[in-house]
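Re-run with default settings, no changes from the original entry. Doing this only to confirm the output is reproducible before filing.
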Amino acid sequence: MVFMYNLSNIKELSIIDNPVKYSKIIGGKKWNTHKLENDFKVELSNGMILDFRKGWKWDRASVPQLFHSIIRPDGDDDIAYCIHDFLYVTKRSTRKFADKEMLKWAKAMKGTERISWRNWDIITRYRVLRLLGGLVW
């Protein structure tokens, strides 16, 4: 059975287990390529359904190694970056929608209502993405 995640159930489910299982590809073309180890589906905020299959490759959060001590490329919000990369690769949406969807899923996974490091991290990633994401779009 392939489970369907959406913005309303992801926080509760992710507390039990990170929905994204992956392994690093050694010797890949990119320094941080990973592949999915499980199947899952997500329903985006606009109702679009994305079907992720075991073996799909992505680079998690595209954070240059220089900044890994400040902003990690992985974490409990991997599904947000998986969705984002899928939308960038397939072009099934606009760039702006893909970026905002990443922000929504990251907030649903680990955001808080108060000022915190987690919220700073989420907003920083989003702003850098809006600034530089056009280079890969």
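The chain has one domain: 4-135. The CA atoms of residues 40 and 52 lie 5 Å apart.
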